[in-house]
Amino acid sequence: MTLAHSREELVASLGAPGERGRVALVPTMGALHEGHASLVREARRRVGPEGRVVVSVFVNPLQFAPGEDLDRYPRTLDADLEVCAGEGVDVVFAPTAEEVYPGGVEAGRTDEQVTVDPGPLAAELEGVTRPTHFRGVLTVVAKLFGLVRPDLAVFGQKDYQQLVLITQMATNLCLGVEVVGAETVREADGLALSSRNRYLDPEQRFRAAALHRVLVAAREAAHWGPDVALEAARAELRQAHGVDLDYLELRLPDLRPLPAGPVPESTEARILVAARVGTTRLIDNMPLTLGARREPRATEGDL
Fold it and tell me: What digits encode the pLDDT tens for the residues 156-180?
């Protein structure tokens, strides 16, 4: 495994395009856990033993607003390198902010940068409370795509709005990168793995598991339709103490709103939740299938 800090080291580590096989990129901000390891395994599965797997480790200032947790975000490069080595990563790209943003960068400041406009979806859901977040995310991902030149990039579905927006960017800007969404990895009680989970004390960690129960309640009631699914989720939330809800929404898989009127049976959808537990903001989501429940028909023996 090679550790690259600069563009020159990255290019030297990857080799010429004709010599390196297919390249998969797993962009991260470090503080790696089993969820990240699962993304690396998916990347390797897709490019095979002859391909190259690159993991980027970069805490991106541009996606943090002033006052967010940029300064306290965990930075654990030595431990991250151990995880990557154990998963057979070929190259770890850990650039400095100056390497990624040669003109300099400050948290949330985009006025002196050429940035990617994420479009109207970025103002919804996460964008309501974090209006500059997705501009920062898409800008750094576009930069990483340009630096690494991967054939595909693997992202987790936990950050589902991010996944949708990156997929749209790759398609709309003709970047030639296949964007792969990998399943969310969860702890035994259902809490989605996240680098921010380490901010939770034991009591908060216990309370945070309610987010998964909220999603499961919606999924189990989804066959009755969207209104019942949402009410089941809200009922579960009402029993969750110490969980300060930000939003709970049911959307189509591409995050467009559900159409007005009755929902056709077997409509695929996504339930999304964001909440604060203590001072830590957590997000999660789950796919579900909506549709009116059909009562079984009476048979001749029932009459």
Answer: 999 999 999 999 999 999 999 999 9
Q: In this structure, are 251 and 275 located in the same domain?
A: yes
- With beta carbons less than 8 A apart as the criterion, state whether 60 and 29 touch: yes
Compute the mean pLDDT over every residue in the chain, rounded to the nearest whole number: 92
Among 136, 156, 182, where does a domain finish?
182
Residues 6+ apart with CB under 8 A from 51: 20, 21, 22, 23, 24, 44
Distance CA 13, CA 92 (A): 9
**Are 124 and 209 contained in the same domain?**
no
What is the average per-residue pLDDT within 269-282? 97
User: What is the identity of the amino acid at 301?
Assistant: G
Mean pLDDT in residue range 131-151: 96
Q: Determine the pLDDT at residue 297.
A: 41
Is residue 165 a part of any domain in this protein?
Answer: yes
Instruction: Tell me, yes or no, whether 166 and 223 share the same domain.
Output: no
Tell me whether residue 260 is exposed, middle or buried, using C-beta atoms within 10 angstroms of its C-beta: 0 to 12, 13 to 18, 19 or more: exposed
Among the options 36, 133, 212, 223, which is catalytic? 36
pLDDT band at 260, cuts 50/70/90? confident
* pLDDT reading at 298 higher than 50: no
Question: Active site includes 212?
Answer: no
* Pair of tokens at residue 159: 């950050």
Q: What is the pLDDT of residue 296?
A: 42
Three-state DSSP at 232 gives helix
| Cβ 269 vs Cβ 236: under 8 Å | no
Vertex 233, ends 38 and 257: CA angle to 5°?
80
